[in-house]
Amino acid sequence: MVDDYRVTPWQVEGEVDYERLVREFGTQKIDENLKASISSLTGELHVLIRRGVFFSHRDLDLVLKDYRDGKGFFLYTGRGPSKAMHIGHLLPFVFTKWLQDKFGVNLYVEVTDDEKFLTNQGVTLDEARSWARENILDIIAVGFDPDKTFIFQDTEYIRNMYPRALEISKKLNFSEVKSVFGFEGSANIGWIFYPAIQMVPTMFERKRCLIPSGIDQDPYWRLQRDIAESLGYPKAAQIQSRFLPPLTGISGKMSASQPETAVYLNDDPNTVRKKIMRYAFSGGQSTVELHRKLGGDPWVDIPFIWLYYFFEDDDSKIRKVEEDYRSGRMLTGELKELLTEKLNGFLGNHAVRREEATSKIDVYKFTGKLAQKMWSTVFD
Ligand code: TYM
Fold it and tell me: Which of 45, 67, 90, 174 sees the fewest Cβ atoms within 10 Å?
């Protein structure tokens, strides 16, 4: 924790200084050389890495080396289901799909109904479990390879993971976990044990595990890296993203309790339009006249930042939007309109694939090739 911002797996407050976060967490920035090594294997770079949204890593160079040497690797990511997913939650999954497509590797998706029950006062176990089903539909809609993807809910798959969770938990004492997560005396004891559960999937295969996620999940991986080798597994590697900022401005995190800060995957086109027009923080001037004269500041403007991070994939188009907005040729209303169209197009496609996903839940959770293998494996 620092004075003006705070990032934990449960909380993001203030305007995050990502340069400083990398130093404090002890991760590495993804530099041009590493980007070149990735694209030499993938042929292109996904927009989220090209534009620096995925900006931090640990051992990604070793992952690429293992891949080149024929040892391979596997992917692991997850979701804590307490509510409907917003657009920020989906980004790591979209990026993970790209990695799976490019490298053809297995992916494990942990849905932590246990975590959300333990860490969120307002959520019952039944609610966390039913949100898990809803969130899994959104995750399936991203389009992962059904033969190479296993999506599991902790409360269902725990029997197979529990022996390994015990091994992990015995390696970690309370002081270590307390200092990494900042637990206080009032934390319930389930929450204190939970980090062991989130570490288990990093040991689902003997290969190196690569975890794409937001940088808020970092504390788990720091602990994993302390103990993995003593259990005979490689330290987990990470590729970590900054946050898609809330609609209302660059500071903090999209919040389920403040619907105006976020766009949910199930928001209808009118709601999306209203949220953007009404709440999206603008870097434009207060009147059209002034804007034409002075221009806007794209780097505080949330519609621009959302387009830049993800929704406008075309590099020459986004450059033109940036120039036009900065020079005052493009108005705030036009920029908001552009984001509204892109976002509603994206959500429309997502809704169709989510509908199709209802018939695929069993494949990803139980009957697919990887799922079947996983249900017959106990990690002891
Ligand atoms: P959860 O449900 O809080 O978040 C799911 C994923 O979304 C990322 N994320 C964001 N990314 C970009 N912009 C945002 N505004 C934004 N908000 C959230 C999170 O970093 C995460 O990658 N404990 C985890 C569940 C979990 C997990 C994992 C996550 C279990 N195993 C392995 C990643 C990797 C959680 O509650 O995530």
Answer: 174
* CATH number belonging to domain 259-356: 1.10.240.10
For residue 40, the model assigns a pLDDT of 98
Choosing from 8, 47, 75, 79 the residue with most ligand 1 atoms within 8 A of its CB, the one to mutate for a pocket test is 79
CA distance 51 to 101: 20
Q: Please tell me the distance from the alpha carbon of residue 98 to that of residue 96, in angstroms, as a whole number.
A: 5
Q: What residues does 74 pair with on adjacent strands?
A: 209
90 CB within 6 A, ligand 1:
no
The pLDDT tens digits of the residues spanning 33-77 come to 999 999 999 999 999 999 999 999 999 999 999 999 999 999 999
User: What element of type H or E holds 57?
Assistant: strand 54-58
Nearby residues of 289 by Cβ (< 8 Å), 6 or more positions away: none
Pocket probe mutation, ligand 1, options 54, 82, 87, 89, max atoms within 8 Å of Cβ: 89
Task: Please tell me if the CB atom of residue 214 comes closer than 6 angstroms to any atom of ligand 1.
Answer: yes
Name the residue with higher pLDDT: 380 or 49.
Answer: 49
Q: Give the ligand 1 atom nearest the CA of 53.
A: 12
What are the extents of the domains in the chain?
6-247, 259-356
pLDDT (tens digit per residue) in 160-185:
999 999 999 999 999 999 999 999 99
Tokens coding 107: 């992916």
CA angle 167, 173, 175 (to 5 degrees): 155
For ligand 1, atom 7: residue with the closest CA = 89
Q: Do domains 6-247 and 259-356 have the same CATH topology?
A: no
Angstrom distance (rounded) from CA 347 to CA 263:
10
Task: Report the predicted TM-score, pTM, of the whole model to 2 decimal places.
Answer: 0.97
CATH of 6-247, one of 3.30.450.370, 3.40.50.1980, 3.50.50.60, 3.40.50.620: 3.40.50.620
Nearest to 203 by CA among 174, 175, 235, 179: 235
